[in-house]
Amino acid sequence: MLIKKTLILFSFIFSTTACAFAADGAIDSGDTAWVTMSTALVMMMTPAGLALFYGGMSRYKNILNTFAMTLVAYCLASIVWVGWGYSLAFGESPSLLIGNLSHLFLNGIDIRSMTGTIPTLIFALFQMTFACISVALILGAVVDRMKFSAWIVFTILWVTFVYAPVCNWAWGGGWMFKMGALDFAGGNVVHINAGISGLVLTLILGKRQGYGKEPMIPSSVAFTALGAGLLWFGWFGFNAGSALAANGIAASAFMVTNTAAAVSGLSWLFVEWKYSKKPTLLGLASGTIAGLVGITPAAGFVTLPGALAIGAISGVIGFFGVAVIKRKIGYDDSLDAFGIHGLCGMWGAIATGLFASPSVTEGAAGLFYGNPGQVWIQFLSIIGTIAFSAIATLIIVFITKVITNGIRVEKEDELAGLDNALHGERAFEIE
Fold first, then answer.
1. 334 domain residue, yes or no
2. Which domain holds residue 170?
3. Cα–Cα dist 49/72, whole Å
4. Residue 250 is inside which H or E element, if any?
5. Using an 8 Å Cβ cutoff, are 95 and 88 in contact?
6. This model's pTM is above 0.85
7. Is 26 contained in some domain?
């Protein structure tokens, strides 16, 4: 009996002491485990999920080139981020436009450094995965016709001079953050940023050979559907992990993310069925991604009814952005990076200003919860991202052209297919 009482007493003292250490700023093992897992989930999204999603939509003669450009973007962005990208995005600076180089190559960050309740090393890695997928998303606009060497140079410059500043604005204490703009997991930072850059790059590169005159048939819709499933799975880390803690906000973000993706997939499917008379697997897969994009900036701020509305409208916007707007304007966004990520990212940012509820995150309220000014703040953040991303991308493309002597592949290589012409490989043996 004495031993039992002693054990109970020691257990009480230990738990009380552990709580005290946590309150005093010790690393929280639960939060750290969750963000570590979330980091791994988001890491998988680029070289696996996005590679399959984009690779399946590209033509059979360019599928390996699409995989290669996705993978090299991940590798390059990883190095840029730990080298100087993280410091530019999160280095403490009086400027509201950019960080500094105080953490060059993660200088000053070690195993004891903390961000909130987690190690700063894990926080830096988690943020790295966002930089990686953001630049890789741009690829969807230009597959089939961009030089591999130009893509390498563009990736390094874009992560440094476009992604890092916008990340600082929203999450590193920059002007968006100071203004009170809400971007939980990357509506501005990831999707609008990448979508606008993809559109600019598309317009500069011009249309693919034969675009509008011959069918551009996907190599494997099955690959695309599998990629969409992996992206959906990884997106739980993307959104719920952005709480940076294993808490109720993470749980809510998890729930609304899944709900928005599901309803968006269905809304795209049924609109497509009505509009084109066929419910396609490609449309269903694209619709789920549109919903995931739309809910991303709102995930930590909205309740279930808000998620249903955001998802339903995301599917409609995505479909008409791809099936109607692109055709009417006539630009060749190969895999609809702007139509899905750009347009649905804008809708998600505005919707955050409509549906943000203080019942989820204290102090975050949108129009429907008594704060109409939040819509205007969200609108300003969108305009700022669009303007900066477009202008900065134009400058980067010009620099890339000079360095690589042009950014578009030779006509004969484009017609023959980039898998063999550039890489000397084939994805499929065609008899």
1. yes
2. 31-208+228-423
3. 15
4. helix 248-276
5. no
6. yes
7. no
Residue-level pLDDT, tens digit, the chain, 431 residues = 444 444 343 343 334 333 433 445 689 999 999 999 999 999 999 999 999 999 999 999 999 999 999 999 999 999 999 999 999 999 988 899 999 999 999 999 999 999 999 999 999 999 999 999 999 999 999 999 999 999 999 999 999 999 999 999 999 999 999 999 999 999 999 999 999 999 999 999 999 999 988 889 999 999 999 999 999 999 999 999 999 999 999 999 999 999 999 999 999 999 999 999 999 999 999 999 999 999 999 999 999 999 999 999 999 999 999 999 998 899 999 999 999 999 999 999 999 999 999 999 999 999 999 999 999 999 999 999 999 999 999 999 999 999 999 999 999 999 999 999 999 999 877 65
Residue 150 carries which side chain, given as an amino acid letter? A
Structure tokens at 217: 């048939």
* Contact by Cβ (8 Å): 347, 294: yes
CB 81 within 8 A of CB 106: no
Decide if 7 is inside a domain: no
In a domain, 5, yes or no: no
For the chain, the farthest-separated pair of C-alpha atoms sits apart, in whole angstroms, at: 87
What is the chain's length?
A: 431
Q: How many domains does the chain have?
A: 1
Any idea what the CATH number is for the domain that residue 304 is in? 1.10.3430.10
Cα-based distances in Å from 71 to 55, 138, 289, 343:
11, 13, 20, 25
N-to-C CA span, the chain? 81
103 touches 86 (CB < 8 A): yes
CA-to-CA distance for 25 and 238, rounded, in angstroms? 25
